[in-house]
Amino acid sequence: MVKAMQKYLTSVFILLVLIISSSCKELYYSDEIGSDDWVPVIQGTIMEGTSPVVTLSWASGYYDKEVQYISDASVTITDDTGNEIVLSEETKGTYVNYSYTGVQGATYTLHVLMSGGDEFTSAPVTIPVRPVIDSVYANPEEITVYLYDYSGAPVTEKRKGLYIMSDLSNSGDTTLYYRFNTYIVKEMTFVQNPGSLNARQGYTWVAYTLDDLYTIENSIPLAGKQVVPEHDMGFLEYVYEASRGNRQSTAPYTTGWVVVTKVYAIPRSVYDYYYTMKEQLNADDQIFAPVPGQIKSNITCVNNPEKQLAGVFEAASLAVSYKFFHYIDLNLYTSKDLPDFPEGITSGTTIGYPPSFWVTL
Amino acid sequence: MYVFLSKRSLLLILFSLVHILIWSQQENDLRISGHYSGISLIAALRQIETDYPVKFYYKEAWFARDTVDILFDDKDLGDAVKTMLNGRPYTFKIIHGSQVVILPRDEVAMLIGAMLNYSNNSDLDRTFIQVGDLEEAGRQKTVALTGKITDGKTGDPIIGAVVQVNNLQQGVVSGLDGRYKLTLSPGLYTLAVSSVGFEKNEYHVKLVGDGDLNLELFDKSIALEDIVIYGQRLDRNVSSHQMSLVELDVKSIKQLPSISGSKDILKGLTTMPGVKSIGEFSSGINVRGGGEDQNLYLFNGAPLFNTSHVLGLVSVINPDAVDKLFLYKGHIPAIYGERVSSVIDIRTNETPPERFSFKGGIGLYDSKLMVMVPVVKDKVFFELGGRTYYSNWILKNSNDNDLRNSLASFYDLNGTLHVQLAKSRLTFSGYTCYDEFRFASEVKYSYGSNLGSVTWNYMLGSNLSSTFSLSYSSYDVAKDDISKNNMQSRTESGIQHTALKYRIKYSGIQKHNIDIGFGVVDYQIDPGKQTPLNEMSLVTTTSLPAVLGYEGAVFINDEYTLNEYITLNAGLRVSGYRSEGQEDYYGWEPRLSFKIQLNDVSSFKMSYNRNIQYLSLVSASSVATPSDIWVLAHDEIKPLIANQFAVGYYRNFSNNSIETSVEVYYKGLTNIIEYMNGAQLEMNPDMESLLLNAEGRNYGIETMLKKNTGKFDGWITYTYSRSLRKTSGVLPEEKISNNQYFPSSYDKPHDFTTVINYHLNKRVTFGANFTYSTGRPITLPEHKYGAGNETAVVFSDKNEYRIPDYHRLDISLTIDESLKLTKKWKGSWSFSLLNVYGRKNAYTLFYKKEEPNVSNGYNHYALYKLYLIGRPVPAITYSFIF
Lengths: 361, 882
Description:
The structure holds 2 protein chains of 2 kinds.
Chain A: H1 2-22, E1 24-27, E2 40-47, E3 53-58, E4 60-61, E5 68-69, E6 74-79, E7 84-91, E8 94-96, E9 107-113, E10 119-122, E11 125-126, E12 133-148, E13 154-171, E14 177-192, E15 200-209, E16 216-218, E17 220-222, E18 225-238, E19 253-266, H2 268-281, E20 299-301, E21 310-329, E22 332-337, E23 348-351
Parallel strand pairs in A: 2-21
Antiparallel strand pairs in A: 2-3, 3-5, 3-8, 6-7, 6-9, 7-8, 9-10, 9-11, 10-20, 12-13, 13-18, 14-15, 14-16, 14-19, 15-23, 17-18, 19-21, 21-22
Chain B: E1 2-4, H1 7-16, E2 31-40, H2 41-51, E3 55-58, H3 60-63, E4 67-76, H4 77-84, E5 90-95, E6 99-104, H5 105-111, E7 116-117, E8 129-131, E9 143-151, E10 162-165, E11 170-173, E12 179-184, E13 187-194, E14 201-207, E15 211-212, E16 215-217, H6 236-239, E17 245-247, H7 250-253, H8 265-268, E18 275-276, E19 286-287, E20 295-299, E21 302-304, E22 308-309, E23 314-315, E24 322-328, E25 342-348, E26 357-363, E27 366-376, E28 380-390, H9 392-395, H10 401-404, E29 407-420, E30 424-439, E31 443-459, E32 464-481, E33 489-506, E34 512-532, E35 542-543, E36 547-561, E37 566-578, E38 585-599, E39 602-613, E40 615-618, E41 629-632, E42 640-653, E43 658-675, E44 691-707, E45 712-726, E46 742-743, E47 750-759, E48 764-773, E49 777-778, E50 781-787, E51 790-795, E52 801-802, E53 806-816, E54 826-834, E55 842-849, E56 861-867, E57 873-881
Parallel strand pairs in B: 1-3, 3-6, 7-13, 8-14, 9-15, 9-16, 20-25
Antiparallel strand pairs in B: 2-4, 5-6, 9-12, 10-11, 10-13, 13-14, 17-24, 18-19, 20-21, 22-23, 24-25, 26-27, 26-57, 27-28, 28-29, 29-30, 30-31, 31-32, 32-33, 33-34, 34-35, 34-36, 36-37, 37-38, 38-39, 39-42, 40-41, 42-43, 43-44, 44-45, 45-46, 45-47, 47-48, 48-53, 49-52, 50-51, 53-54, 54-57, 55-56
């Protein structure tokens, strides 16, 4: 009887697993998708102390791979004092003016006149007060990650590491808006030709960003200030894979992470642009069939307000924090502030000597 | 001398006399004298024939036992015959002064037009039960037929039994003591008597005057049926004035496969023409292109604001609790208001159980149990039922990481208490349900409904009854955002609905059934309160103020049977709405329907309806979700108004065993809620500013072929329909598709459904149903562009594309263990296979950023199709009744 019941339950279980596993998603293709409309993409930036840059292109068809840039357009930026900043086409579709840099508190408006006659203008945007990064710090944690093995079966693993957080604060009564960009350089060392007379120290590093373009926050009032407390920047995962070691080289050992935190203070209209982008690209609640949303641009077509377009004219001020984190265990980690850190580091390896930017405690 | 009249000769004579209206008032010269004492009437007649030149025509059987004691002294022949027939149901005619034809009074009345034949046949030899005094035949224009309907087995009165007069749009329901009363013209009738749990019975009645007729019903021979049709005539689709009505035969739904193995009455409705759902397992139904919030679900009179468990997998209604279900999708009687698309009136059982009994089922995913307990025989009884769903252990063993970290569970409980008093009946009803659903480690929903109602039916007279009801309904949802450790929050919202309704029914005027009443509703909506979920959370507590509103309505409705061909149903509802600090609204809601009976098997119907809705649901997604927010009408959200016209032709074949119908409708809508691009509704105090008032037009043609009896039964439906919307905004953000008509999310032009059952025998039934429909409209990306490391897209106009067409085949096998009435425990096995050929029907399409991997082709961004059932899904359920 018991065996029969077990057999029955096992059958039931298998059926149920079949049912549940049948729910899924797959890539969708339809050759019906397409439009004859040409949608201009205008992406402009003016930052405090930085020259304005505007890129003009056409949005490509959904299944197309080629990007077409827009040349021969007239691109100007006016400020609230009546100055007109003319941008010239430096490379195809990219318009710059190196003789001007953005000023905090100044309000700018972008104007674009395309050769076809369409004229575009942005909402006026003001470069906000520069953000104040109070601190960038870490919380050690062990997290569970959900993975699939080679056969596609789900597996879970425990991972240790550091959650990186930051606190921001500014004086003021009104809500402030921020965009984050966190750049990581992960430093690892290994020994080449271990145990031999030719043994040499190796240095390897991986550069990556920790968040998305649309990682944004708005401030909340606290003790007379506008603050962003405990902004979650991401998880620095400590992985030591001994299996990667061999006769030629020991397995890489993580010595630490350089965390470059860039915080842009942006106007509300720019925040809305990134917010709607986040909504568009993160369909986490797809089980409810979310209504697709257009990204909200702060640019409109003057001679045809109905015309579809994409992009944003962003005014921003920037604050940057440089920090190095060293991790041994959940109870043994440390950090130190760095005065700066070079831009544009790409992943690489050196043998015998560390690269110039290498950080040690 | 007498003549025994054959039926044929009698009729010939009768027809020759049809033009004579008054039989007994005649002059002749023959005069009779004599003493006829202590002899039979027949002997007296023979004696008169012997003594005088006169002949009598009659049937001996009529007077076989009659004797006379009469003295005639030069009596006029007519007066003499009249004296002899005095007190007997016969009349006579003297032809040529010496031929006396004697006939039953009622048959004469019938032939001369005073008594009509409404029975199912014209066979005068059929045994009719005579009601009334034949002496009075032809003297009354209307007579009252009264009586009591009892259980033929126990003699107990049956409450709520339906007495339907065939071929007339007239019927009554038995009262608390089982009594009924019909007011009819004298005539021949066939009465169809039915009640839940009893075999339908027919009585052929010869109604000649006021009188009593007690009727009996007997138990059904097959006991293991979920629900039976309520008081439904075989030709009801033709004979009833009501059009666009679905009276769900849940017995048929029992044959349908379902994902959880148990039956689902709300999802079963989607096999009917004009009733669809937005997608596989989506919550609720869409009726004639209307939104889910445009349907009023009443459970014993209390409204349901959420109709689905597990995000649409299972309807919240326990089928074991349901006795009757009516879906009004076109002509909505004036007694109903509050919604514009449909009313789904669900009633629980009202028949007292004979003994303690229970029924239930055990399935792969859920189990249910219901007990029926008589407290005082035929006076007090209660029913208590519940279901639970146990899927968490299944999810934990899924091979999808998101599902492994998800949870889904629910329970629901329902109970009713019936108290039978002298002239009234009290019904207390309660319902509660609770759901928990968590998807991955991102969001968790907890939601539930609580319903309660008290209904007091009171018989004010044989033709007058009243119903007083008080109901309360609440729906609350909590949405936990658990994706970020330091920002975990709970957002709660809800709605409370308290209603008082009073209704009087009067059927004392011949050919009229009048309804009059009023109702008031008190709404309280809690649009949102956000609180930190734990001490570590940095979220601050925020509350949006509650919104209060009041809706009131008065109504009158008259069902008027003009003649045997034409029936008119006219109603008027006047509703109003008030919310503090907002504009007041009121409106007229005329409800008209009209039936022309073309012949016994076909009819033509038309209707016009105007409905006003002061409460709407706003949703940030294409389908209803548990956390959607109810909003009341105010300055910026105008009441939703619908005007619907419908015409239909109905034709039955093969003695009503095959029904066909065609209905065409057009529905104009104003003040439908649409949304500005990217509208953020949750915890938004300015939510109303993101909503748009749009207009809409829904139209379509619905066809149905249904076979009710035989080894094969089932139905086939085809519907062509459109559901379009249009904004009229001024600013760009107020325009959708440049203010041109665009398809709503419920626009599925072609819909074909077939449900077929094959009854191998009384115990074994095979079932199959196939559904095809056009894919629903959807908005898809048409362009893309790079922004930093991201690839953003530009979407098409709203609903410019469609998801792939939907089609699915399900099959089932039901085996009943035993049908013997003497066997107390009766079991039934149901095996079903859903999605037989494993089609991956799209639930939705969405554009999403993904971590690059093999499965998405290393595309960072992609357009995905989400499907819920991608392969054949078996299910098994064991049901029982004791």
